[in-house]
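Annual report, structural modelling task.

Input specification for the nicotinamide-adenine-dinucleotide complex:
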Amino acid sequence: MSENTLSPELIDRLRNAQSVAALTGSGISAESGVPTFRDAQTGLWSQFRPEDLATPDAFLRNPQLVWDWYAWRRELVGKAAPNAGHQALVELEELLPKFTLITQNVDGLHQRAGSRQVIELHGSILRTKCFDENVPVDVPPESDARPPRCPRCGAYVRPDVVWFGEMLPREALDAAFIASRACDVFLSIGTSTLVEPAASLPFGARGGGAAVIEINPNPTPLSEHADFVLRGSAAEVLPLLARVLREA
Ligand code: NAD
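The model returned the following structure:
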């Protein structure tokens, strides 16, 4: 894909945008070597489905299994580096009058790339919280328990992520909906738009009059509703958008 594949209309909408919102999903981190959920799981954990590990019931049934799965993912993410897609979004934040980055990812790669304001809809695997009290707690460095115990109340410590069947953090979700309804351009990047309520954000943006641009190598349920569809990888397409703005 080259800059020539961007239509003049898309370039015009982007250059004239006062406010842009971007929603990212696990596809943006795929090129950093972090597997998406819906791609085949690899290695040790290929025999498990995320839906069987990322739930409160699964944790209560087998806390060590779930803790170890997250420890494995944390290690994987620790070894991964942000890619050109994450970096282009840092540039968009610098170049645009208003830019809101909303992510479903839990890998912290946007922050490591340098994005300053990130709305995390699904939490972060880099943080932990108390299973019972639902408040952030740090794992004592000397602890090798799997999972460790909360230093305040003795309950299990769990990853600070939103599991299947759990509510999203209210403040983050409200901020995401407000930014989506108010933007002129909405970018849907590397997300299958199957997981609610994030999947509704582009429709909120359309309702508010925004142009919706999808960036994904594969079709999704959003594709037929998007104003522009860029069939390429995030690391390939996002730098082109950043260049359009740089050269405006
Ligand atoms: P998903 O797995 O449902 O969909 C990934 C999408 O990314 C697909 O549509 C796929 O076509 C697309 N994709 C694949 N490679 C791409 C690339 N190089 N560039 C652009 N797009 C690409 O992921 P989802 O929509 O984010 O939803 C699944 C849930 O899984 C999310 O809630 C998220 O919290 C969680 N998750 C997060 C991570 C992470 O933090 N990196 C990883 C796996 C799962």
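The chain has a mean pLDDT of 93.
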